[in-house]
Design a protein that fits this description.
Length: about 270
């Protein structure tokens, strides 16, 4: 199960990489990898036709693997078990990547001449932390409402103010976003009367949202407000009338009953 998911992920990166296949060998391909995952760095076939010697390095000086055609690939001790080299297609698989593994990975070949055939900028990232979305201040008048919220992560925060009149709400200055200290993106925006705080990097995202009406009830809209108010008044009035009638009739019946029994008593004493 785990293996399959890993394969799917690798395939995803593979397809991602192939978008860049046509951009030329000197270009650097950006690859983002989730901490703990593997990644497959491939080289293009056509450039390796007259290959005699190939070397993968990281950050230009640290050798990951060296391979002479017909020989066995050599991997320095520090990378044993952490990289897998394919003698068929010269791809390099980096395993269980950690933050320190972020860097520029380069494949160079020596044939007729030495040349760089592939370059990857690998960035290892952890999942982004959850976000808190809290109101800072609300001010309400008869025809407007201003709400300021702050969206915060472990290491960063962003504030934004929303203004509602009786019909619509808007965000002051539009969408607000920034890059956090850990290189992720933090964004606050308004969508269908929901305030959304979105925290994301290349491999994951989290979000938190709140309804603007919870703080700015004005925005129910004038016409809606009137009809709801009317219905409430009618229901309340009818209820009141029924209650009063019940009380009055109970009271009246009580009086009649008393009158009747008094009358009977008088008649009874008269008879004696
Ligand atoms: C290159 O070899 C690796 C390891 O055998 C394999 O996973 C990958 O799919 C191969 N790539 C291509 C394009 O055949
Ligand atoms: C909300 O802000 C606007 C613009 O800053 C201001 O004109 C308005 O009076 C404010 N409304 C309230 C209820 O504070
Ligand atoms: C926002 O509202 C529109 C129209 O009312 C609707 O089509 C859309 O799906 C809504 N979007 C979200 C994210 O709720």
């Amino acid at each position: 199960m785990l293996k399959t998911m890993l394969d799917i992920e690798l395939e995803f990166y593979l397809s991602l990489l192939c978008i860049y296949c046509f951009t030329g060998s000197s270009a650097v391909t950006d690859v983002f990898v989730k901490r703990g995952d593997d990644v497959l760095l491939e080289v293009m076939d056509d450039v390796t036709k007259d290959l005699e010697f190939l070397r993968w390095t990281v950050n230009t000086n640290s050798v990951l693997v060296e391979y002479s055609l017909g020989g066995k690939p050599t991997v320095p001790e520090g990378y044993t078990g952490r990289v897998e080299f394919s003698v068929e297609n010269y791809s390099l698989k980096l395993k269980n990547l950690q933050d320190d593994d972020s860097g520029v990975y380069t494949a160079r070949v020596t044939g007729d001449e030495e040349q760089t055939i592939t370059k990857y900028m690998v960035t290892v990232e952890g999942p982004v932390s959850p976000v808190d979305l809290n109101p800072d201040s609300v001010s309400i008048s008869s025809d407007s409402c201003n709400l300021t919220v702050t969206c915060s992560t472990e290491d960063s925060h962003i504030s934004s103010t929303f203004t509602c009149d009786t019909k619509t709400c808007s965000q002051e200055g539009g969408d607000q976003s920034k890059v956090t200290n850990s290189g992720a993106s933090l964004r606050v925006h308004l969508l269908n009367d929901s305030i959304i705080c979105y925290h994301s990097n290349q491999i994951s995202w989290t979000q938190n949202m709140t309804q603007i009406q919870d703080f700015c009830p004005l925005h129910a809209g004038l016409s809606d407000g009137v009809s709801i108010c009317l219905v409430k008044t009618v229901v309340f009035s009818v209820g009141l009338i029924i209650m009063v009638s019940v009380v009055i009739s109970v009271h009246l019946m009580e009086k009649i009953r008393k009158l009747k029994s008094n009358q009977m008593y008088i008649e009874f004493t008269l008879l004696q």
